[in-house]
Amino acid sequence: MNFHDDEWKKKPYKIKDITRQIKKAVVAGNLRELQRKSSEKFGKPELPRIHLDSDGTEIDDEDYFQTLEPNTELIAVFSGEQWIDPTQYLTITTHNGEEINNNDVEKIHLKKLISLLSNNKCNMSILSEPDLELLSNLQPDSFADVIGKDFIEHLKEASSRILDEKREAFDTIELLKLIGKHQGVGRQSNVEHRPFSPSSSTTSLSTMSSFSSNQQ
Prior knowledge:
The protein is of the alpha+beta class. 50% of the residues lie in helices and 10% in strands.
């Protein structure tokens, strides 16, 4: 297969992330080119697995890839992610041009999340921080008639714990970046620094943030 063959075979595809919230248009002549362009579009260092959006079929065969129709909808699944059945998502729409107020939108979104997690609790690991925060602030009685109070309380506790872990991890990473930058400057100036202790990372960052606020 030469360059001109690939150019002749190029077709447009609609590629999405696993949440289906981010959609990109990609033109590619072969599977590897589609993977490479998907990595660039989503800002990822590694090549993703490519799945059909409709049923989750993983496309790992070049011959099968060439049978896809133009504008086929695909999902880019990166390391640590998994394809999610689209039927688990509820689409929020308006009827006859009527607007849905914020409270209704939030309630519909929460129902979507609860439905997703009731089918597979492991899906909680891919939720965004705003979604985890919504779940952690749930009132146990608010959806008890839909799924049961015990399940809601479990969601509330688990989402709060995962949210805290994500925030602590983010704080640690940010502190490591700051320390790495500071140590890089220090090495240039031949200044010695005390070794970093990971156990104090979160506390240190909070202290730095508090100090910064007090100085303003």
